[in-house]
């Protein structure tokens, strides 16, 4: 309750951060949580940016709402109960595409080109 009350009294309750390097974002999020007593984060964009702050935010019990990243780790309430993902995770999205292709194009040959990032490691 202390965090919520502090934010309601603030003259500027929202902080918008645009196009910030991952290391700078992690530092800024830490400052917002520790110094400004931020209540939550909302829709940080990108897998790397969200991953950079996920463990910290969960350890501080600060909600990471609608993390705009599709890696499996953002839909893992057992290990990250304070994170709620926005996008479908890569596994679910791939399954949807796969089922559609099998149904609509049963004899199709499929090729896949993937950037070597988090997605590639989950396949």
What would the principal axes of the Cα set say about the shape? elongated
Radius of gyration: 18 Å
User: What's the end-to-end separation, in Å?
Assistant: 42 Å
**Strand and helix order:** HHEHEEHH
What is the makeup of the main sheet? 3 strands, parallel
Helicity range = 40-55%
What does this structure look like?
- The chain has 123 residues and is mainly α.
- Helices cover 44% and strands 7% of the residues.
- It has five helices and three strands.
- It has a three-stranded parallel beta sheet with strand order 1-2-3, with helices on one face.
- Strand 1, helix 3 and strand 2 (64-67) form a beta-alpha-beta unit.
- The protein is elongated, with a radius of gyration of 18 Å.
- Residues 1-11 have low confidence and may be disordered.
Which short descriptors sum up this protein?
123 residues; mainly alpha; 3-stranded parallel sheet; 3 strands; 7% strand
């Amino acid at each position: 309750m202390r965090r919520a009350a502090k934010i309601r009294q603030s003259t500027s309750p929202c902080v918008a951060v645009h196009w910030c390097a991952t290391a700078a974002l992690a530092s800024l999020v830490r400052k917002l949580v520790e110094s400004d007593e931020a209540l939550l984060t909302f829709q940080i964009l990108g897998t790397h940016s969200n991953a950079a702050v996920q463990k910290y935010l969960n350890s501080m019990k600060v909600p990471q709402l609608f993390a705009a990243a599709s890696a499996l780790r953002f839909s893992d309430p057992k290990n990250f109960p304070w994170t709620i993902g926005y996008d479908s995770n890569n596994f679910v999205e791939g399954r949807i595409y796969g089922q559609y292709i099998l149904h609509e194009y049963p004899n199709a040959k499929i090729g896949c080109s993937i950037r070597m990032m988090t997605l590639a490691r989950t396949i």
